[in-house]
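Subject: complex prediction, re-run

Hi both,

The earlier run crashed halfway through, so I resubmitted it with identical inputs.
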Amino acid sequence: MREEKHIIGYGESGNSKEVFYSINPSGKENSAVYFHQATAEEVNQAVQQASSSFALYRKIPAARKAAFLNAIAAELENCGDALITTCMQETALPRARLEGERARTTGQLRMFATLVAEGSWVDARIETALPDRKPLPKPDMRYMNIPLGPVAVFGASNFPLAFSVAGGDTASALAAGCTVVVKAHPAHPATSALAGKAIQRAAQSTGMPDGVFSLLFDSGTQTGAQLVTHPLIKAVAFTGSYRGGKALYDMAVRRPEPIPVFAEMGSTNPVFVLPEAAQQKGATIAEAYSASVAMGVGQFCTSPGMLFYPQQAADFNGQLSNVFSNITGGVMLAAYMYHAYQAGVEERLALPAVATLASGKAPDTTDTHVVTPVLMTTHSDELITQPLLREEIFGPASIAVPVTTREAMLALAHSLPGQLTATVHGTAEELPAWQELLDILEQKAGRVVINGFPTGVEPVSAMVHGGPFPATTNSSSTSVGTAAIYRFVRPVCYQNMPDALLPAELQESNPMGIYRMVNGGRAFTQL
Amino acid sequence: MREEKHIIGYGESGNSKEVFYSINPSGKENSAVYFHQATAEEVNQAVQQASSSFALYRKIPAARKAAFLNAIAAELENCGDALITTCMQETALPRARLEGERARTTGQLRMFATLVAEGSWVDARIETALPDRKPLPKPDMRYMNIPLGPVAVFGASNFPLAFSVAGGDTASALAAGCTVVVKAHPAHPATSALAGKAIQRAAQSTGMPDGVFSLLFDSGTQTGAQLVTHPLIKAVAFTGSYRGGKALYDMAVRRPEPIPVFAEMGSTNPVFVLPEAAQQKGATIAEAYSASVAMGVGQFCTSPGMLFYPQQAADFNGQLSNVFSNITGGVMLAAYMYHAYQAGVEERLALPAVATLASGKAPDTTDTHVVTPVLMTTHSDELITQPLLREEIFGPASIAVPVTTREAMLALAHSLPGQLTATVHGTAEELPAWQELLDILEQKAGRVVINGFPTGVEPVSAMVHGGPFPATTNSSSTSVGTAAIYRFVRPVCYQNMPDALLPAELQESNPMGIYRMVNGGRAFTQL
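This time it finished cleanly. Structure:
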């Protein structure tokens, strides 16, 4: 049995005698590592170092921050197969998925490195002085985004690499110039330790200040609560359940000094099938929908959990039922998720108006915590009146709802809470007539998908992985894509600041060669 | 005695028998108008109309929204002298100030009209499809900002035109595509009614939907609370006291669906004088500081309330005391502000370590609610240990603190809560040696002013009128300048949306000719 300690800046710590273990949810061999619960002193030490190093880190030139991010990516690659096999043992996710996820994680880090090194993201705005303006001279004003301070990041269970220790939240916070304290997700602590050490090595090799990054372990909620309520923490990033995210939000807004919480809390990601589409390509949609539900044992934030289709499309129901019966379940990421899935399905099926339309296959395995995909069905009125049916079940469960009229389809859309995504399948001919549906959905969701499926979130500049509450606690943000950096900054205006004392981004000679808005003109020009 | 009613969309209402009156704080003749307290039904009706008209208003082309904003500006000018004289009676502010403020208000409206008509503000981002990408095709993704929904705006007392009914919050919310319900400030209801009718006429003449704007009166807090907790209100904008803003914030974050509150709650706007500056231009700084404190009877959010200067600059103290003794007070905006000012000064002067350094002159008048400027002084240690001394007094009161060492100056800066502004006076030679002070202050304030004074907030693209809590409840925003529009929007991503169904801003042909980010490149290009 091997011990792993908290990473606090360049050091490590493991003072508590209370420990917990890395567990393989499939019941097979695990990675045989134990972890100390973080003590209050350790949490405080990590935050204090994050705060003192912030004063240094924020002033480090953009090119060096970019080198740090690139070094993290390289160190994750240097972890070699150990990172993949450790993660497979802790999550029961397959090798190909995790290799792909590592590539995505390093890709994200390098994307933010490029963004930061280039520099235009700071949204520099310059108003030049008019010393002769009457009645009063106009001063020189220069605006740009600066980092908020130390950020608490919560590792997510379902992307043990891409949304965890070295994932998008950490990458975008470090890119913004914030220091980071990560609370590791207890479902993959050994993976977290490897990623954390990769970041620690990258910080040291690129000369970042001691404390720019720390990683704390805790199988409970104490460390998270202490981080969110610590006066020196200035923002929180979280991906996970509604319950978890909302609890952190409630703590943060009740602080003497409230701070922003960017909690991405998942959603049911409704899919609407329009009449002609159901008729012309019902079989294809049914197949792709079922595959999307089954993907990764349904453990994605964007996994589709609701399907609305025209009752008139008589075949569609049968097609869907057929193909869904052939999809296969798998091992959930953790025991508690397995139990939550089973309970969530049972609770819904206990409602009089809910029935099973199809069940997928149990995989042929002796593994533990294996779930079977479930496709439920109900009446559209029931979905509107029964809030439980609009809540997410984390895992490969979904509900298919036949809809009789256009008005009922629109009413269903209206009834939805905020979503990460909303999807419409329609032919080119019928879509324009459903503009009203699209209008409703763009007000409900962060991303509107046409003739596709919500799983597969591209980490690009145009991505929105966010949406109205309860999908997130801050609808003006995204946690994927380059715009994720804006969660961790605020604008500052320098008035009549001597040129030499301005940040490089705002100096008259524009030494970084970035795009800047000058005198309110529409052009972003390089002066 | 004339009656004024609530404006609800194109209609009016005044159902309550409970009324209140327009009051002249100077005790002179008032405008002899009474107002109904809004009933719960009236508030709900205004919000319902704001919500139903939002579905229409948000889809109106940008050029027509711009026409609406320009029409509001024209209608405010059409109000002629009646708007100015009414406002003078309600606020005791002088004619020149209010004429200037109207020009600023119409200027802001036209600035947002220009911004919206041009269109690049939506931050359009396009990632074009790669249908042949392996293992999976890359979809077409298009990102832009869309409006949040109906916004509740609270008129501010201290800018009865520029931060009130037709002020920057309303202008930026309407520009963003949101509908607006304004709660009028009870200290200038007749002015509010005139501005509200100007907006109503502009809405009708430019064909905006009935309900795009409503205006409610209430001398208490009930209407505000109902607005902030109404499920159909999606954001709140407020300028005023910490107590008022924090109360609205607390209500909004405790809603079943929390919403953002952009409360600008003022600050003490510290001014630091460095040794050489004190020596070389102490008299000039003392004079300008005193004038800045006296301006508008100290009733600005950016009025300087704290002055830190080197104790060694022996003359400075005397110079300051002399010039401050010659500045004149005036009538406060409302009786309750007069009493709060007197109580605030008394409470501080009752502290053993606080003394009066100078008192300004009482104006030669029989007016009521007249205050006299007060300059207090204390030890720098006292300012750090006594939180009361770091709180704002609304009005022409200020505290001057002699500081013995550089370390004490930095410690004072460190001790400050979040500020709208922080100002440093230093010679070109000494400023570089005080980089550490500037670094602290940019983390404390939304705007850092060098060798100037914080009063005078330019409504331009590079302005930040915001700052860390408790200056605001959302440090990533500004309530002045073009960036104020971003408070009321969120991004949405359209994936594989047919071109004809996309908003104009994202269509392939770029019909609005706006700047767009394409495929993550650094350039904002017109495709």
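Chain A is about 35% helix and 20% strand.

- K.
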